Automatic annotation (TrEMBL):
It comes from Methylobacterium aerolatum. One of its GO terms (molecular function) is dihydrolipoyl dehydrogenase (NADH) activity. InterPro entries: FAD/NAD-bd_sf (IPR036188), FAD/NAD-binding_dom (IPR023753), FAD/NAD-linked_Rdtase_dimer_sf (IPR016156), Mn/Fe_SOD_N_sf (IPR036324), Pyr_nuc-diS_OxRdtase (IPR001100), Pyr_nucl-diS_OxRdtase_dimer (IPR004099). This is Dihydrolipoamide dehydrogenase. Residues 352-450 form the Pyridine nucleotide-disulphide oxidoreductase dimerisation domain. It is an enzyme of class 1 (oxidoreductase). It comes from the Bacteria. Belongs to the class-I pyridine nucleotide-disulfide oxidoreductase family. Pfam families: Pyr_redox_2, Pyr_redox_dim. Residues 7-325 form the FAD/NAD(P)-binding domain. Its EC number is 1.8.1.4. Its cofactor is FAD. Keywords: FAD, Flavoprotein, Oxidoreductase.
Amino acid sequence: MRDETCDVAVIGAGTAGLAAYRAATEEGARAVLIERGPGGTTCARVGCMPSKLLIAAAEAAHRAREADLFGIRIGSVSVDGPAVLERVRAERDRFVGKVLEGVDRFPEGDRLSGTARFLDSHSLAIGDAVRLRFRAAVVATGSSPAVPEPLRGLGDRLLTTDTLFEIPDLPRSLAVLGLGAVGIEIAQAMARLGVKVTAIDSGRTIAGLTEPDLLERAVAIFGGEFALLQDTRVEATRREGEGVRLSFTGKDGAGSSLEVERVLSAAGRPPNVGGLGLETTGVALDGDGMPEFDSRSLVCRGGPILIAGDADGWRPVLHEASRQGGIAGRNAAALAAGRSTEAPEPWPALAMVFTHPQAAAIGAPFETGAGDRIVAGADFGNQGRARAEGVNRGGIRLWAAPNGRLLGAEMLGPAVEHLAHIVSGALRDGLTAAALLDRPYYHPTIEEGLSSVLSEIVQKITDESRL
């Protein structure tokens, strides 16, 4: 085993790891990037991009079927499953290739391939070939799909996002377990592509929405496109014939079963921290083996180790992984040089779901009975631009402090990805509803729906001041 040294060791070449490596080197540190493969980032290979390609195909089929609304007669619509998946893979591979090209431009001496494990607080073994001594290390090992115990043993009839996009054709029927972002996106896309879908979740939330009225609307909207089973627990599964039989208990306590061709596990992505040898570093670990860390500086308690991106499980979305990687890289370089670290204020929470209609949650979560908040809402049902385009479903809920400072929002509707960015920026800048309302809102746009909610908050504050 040969010995090498560096200032900063970065474990993982995903979004967070790449950002950490760049930030550390920009600070003057000698950084080494370690990747066990396959590389290309979770987003590009198995996450954001292939799922959006599938959603785009599904939306094309859906819009064609719905063209009658506008007096456009298309006739029957057929879906070529192999062609859909071939395009998904081709475009996915292009995105991955761009990422890998960027990594290949890093100095060869700064890249190591193999599985890393800590030997102690200042050294790593990379496979059986290299012992790497470091002054600080960044754990950016990402996450992997969870497979609940009842689904294990199904072999190739079980799909995760790591395998879904590799299948040669669309299944005839699919059970999706989990109604978070991944589950609801894939369930709707598959249904619109002609797959018979049953979506199952043990809880009551959908697409991260918790505000009661929006959640009720989401159940009605998505439940109109595929079978939706909430408060339902899968007890067992078995291979049967050419498919899978699932046995489950519904919210009424009654048992039932369902046969499908394939099952997709969309039950979350736990961090990849097992097998890293973190117990040898002196870092404080919780009962699940996760390092205890400061969410602002990303420094772990008890050693010169930092953690970033999906590996820390805090906010597992790409824009947070990129920012966290930069913070961790700069702070790792500072620790290596004996300088003080930075602890910037976290961004407002921002989560989006790219269904149709889209969903988003921004800032402070909804709280039932929070008497110190001003809550306002709008319905897209009669909103001008939404009706013109035939996408008039869903609504907006926005909450603010008594002084009008915006706190958070949930949304379900058209163009929500853009509305959510507007609100997120306002939260970052500490704006009040009145300040955000005092901006131009062009007519006719979906953004006018947001302005109407802001007007309601301002009016409620005015009414309160008159009492």
